[in-house]
Amino acid sequence: MLYTLQIWVGVVLLILNVPVGWIGSVYFIGKARDSVKKKFFLFLGASTYIFSWFMLYVGIVLCGKKFASKLIKENKTLIILVTSIILIISIIFEIYRAKKANIKKQV
Question: What Å distances lie between residue 85 and 38, 47, 59, CA to CA?
Fold first, then answer.
């Protein structure tokens, strides 16, 4: 079956809304802990989470309610996998950034 661009965009939004919401929130809340601008990063974390709900809504509208619910039910493993991959990449990046910052402090 050939899908339109509208359905493909909806599918991408449906799959990415979970990683964007959770990982974005956790990332910005972690940044708030280490930053002087706590309120700013907490605001970004909350905004990211709210944006992920907007992504979910738009994805459902673009795909249609029946197709979206079927897609989510059949692809929970894929959604968890994408979330896990993005989380691992984020952790590796944070470790790299922290080591780089530590090296600059030592010099």
Answer: 27, 22, 21
